[in-house]
Structure formats: structure tokens, C-alpha cells
Amino acid sequence: MTTRSSEPETSARGTNKRGAAEAAPREHSHRPTRILLVSIAGAPFPAEVIRRTVTLATPEHAKITVLGIARVYGTSLGLPHPGLKPTMREWEDQRNVVNDAADLLRGRGFEVRVAAAKSRNAPKRIAKWGKARNFHAIVLADPERSRWRRRIEGDLTHEIERRCGIRVHAIPTPPLDHRRPRA
């Protein structure tokens, strides 16, 4: 019967051998890139926005989430008023726009999720989504606005990047025309 000493064995070179294993190389879990495509106020996505999303998503076959933001009017200081919330028609328009974009992207072979939200402050809501769900990039259409309107509402791209630190790709588009023909 052999007895074990409390001292570690020494090798021919004089270093101690404790029998510790070498670290095995770990496999890094490679999560695919995630891109958030945003629609504000139910405006359909121009072809250039879809093209830019596909260009960003193609190299790593990113997962794409299409988010529709319905506008809530008024301020948060007053009492809630049902007339300031999005109407059923606005929700339906938003769903149609988001689903159409998702169908186009699915047709190109991407995994696409669809979501809708309402907000008084769209850049704040988009930044919360981007940060909470760990997106790598945000793509949105930035309609032309007058200098006065841009000053009042703020620069959409700058506000989102400032709040969440995620790269925002704003694609300039023609101005939105919210006037609809009456039926």
C-alpha cells in the first residue's frame, strides 16, 4: 500500500505537478445580429428602406423585428383622453404597413418578427425597444420636414442614438401626407 504525501510531485525540471487540467477551448455562442426596422405613424416603407435593411441583414443573416409606432397626441401632464389615442383605423393602417414589410423580408429568406406599440414620444419608445431587446442596428424612414418642424420635434436619429447608443440608419424619404380622401 502506498501512502500519499501532502507535497505535490516534482517533475524532472523541478516544477510542481498538481494534476490541474489545461483550460479547454470554449465554443463561443454566436448570436445572429438583430436589426430593428421601425415604422412611425403608419407610413408605408419606401423600397429604399427595405433595400437598406436587406443590405445590413444579409452578411450575417440577421433576425429582423418590424416595429410599428402609433402616435398618441397630447401631453402626459393632462388627464388621459380617449380622443388622443390612436383610432382603430390608425391601428389597422399600422398593422398593414408592418405586415407588408414583414412579408417582403420573409420573401427574401429572413426570420422576421412583428410588433406594434403606441407612444407620445416615438424616439424614446424606439430607444427603449432597441436597448431592452439588444438590437445591433435600427433602420427607419426619416421623412423630409421643414426646418421649423424639425426644430420643434427634434432630430429623430440623434434622439434615438443619444438614448440607447445603437447605430441608427435613417433613410431620407419624401414628406408624409396625412390628408386622406374622404369616402
Shape: globular
Strand order of the largest sheet: 5-4-3-6-7
Largest sheet: 5 strands, parallel
Measured between the Cα atoms of the first and last residue, the distance is 100 Å
Structural class: alpha/beta
| Chain-averaged pLDDT | 82
- Which range best describes the helical content: under 10%, 10-25%, 25-40%, 40-55%, 55-70% or over 70%? 25-40%
Poorly predicted regions:
none
Number of H/I helices: 5
Q: What's the SSE pattern?
A: EEEHEHEHEHHE
Q: How many individual β-strands?
A: 7
Radius of gyration, Cα only, in angstroms?
26 Å
Strand content: 15-25%
Task: Report on the architecture of this protein.
Helices cover 32% and strands 23% of the residues. With 183 residues, it is of the alpha/beta class. The chain has helices at 47-57, 88-107, 122-132, 147-153, 156-164; strands at 9-10, 16-17, 34-40, 63-71, 112-119, 137-143, 167-173. α3 packs parallel to α5. β3 (34-40), α1 and β4 form a beta-alpha-beta unit. Strands 5-4-3-6-7 form a five-stranded parallel sheet, sandwiched between helices. It has a two-stranded antiparallel sheet with strand order 1-2.
Produce the secondary structure layout.
Blueprint: E1 9-10, E2 16-17, E3 34-40, H1 47-57, E4 63-71, H2 88-107, E5 112-119, H3 122-132, E6 137-143, H4 147-153, H5 156-164, E7 167-173
Parallel strand pairs: 3-4, 3-6, 4-5, 6-7
Antiparallel strand pairs: 1-2
Helix pairs in contact: 3-5
